[in-house]
């Protein structure tokens, strides 16, 4: 259980740091807009997703807490 807490804590801590340093990321989404028999029309859109600052800070704090708790735990 100790290793799991430390591992999850470190993962959340790193994700929190990444969320604060790089809050916006882009991805591509392909959408089908029309279908006429065997012909398909698709559109590829670029989307932007944002990580809220409070979520990044929360992940950072919870990750730090879990890491400390896992490191202090015996057994």
Structural description of this entry:
- Helices cover 53% and strands 33% of the residues.
- Helix 1 packs antiparallel against helix 2.
- It has one domain.
- Strand 1 and strand 2 (39-50) form a beta hairpin.
- It is an alpha+beta fold and 75 residues long.
Q: Strand order within the widest sheet?
A: 1-2
Structural class: alpha+beta
**What's the shape?**
elongated
Low-confidence stretches: none
User: Helix count, per DSSP?
Assistant: 2
Supply database-style keywords.
75 residues, alpha+beta, 2 helices, 53% helix
Quick summary of this structure?
It is built from 2 helices and 2 strands; from the N terminus they run H-E-E-H.
Helix and strand arrangement:
Layout: H1 2-21, E1 24-36, E2 39-50, H2 53-72
Antiparallel strand pairs: 1-2
Helix pairs in contact: 1-2
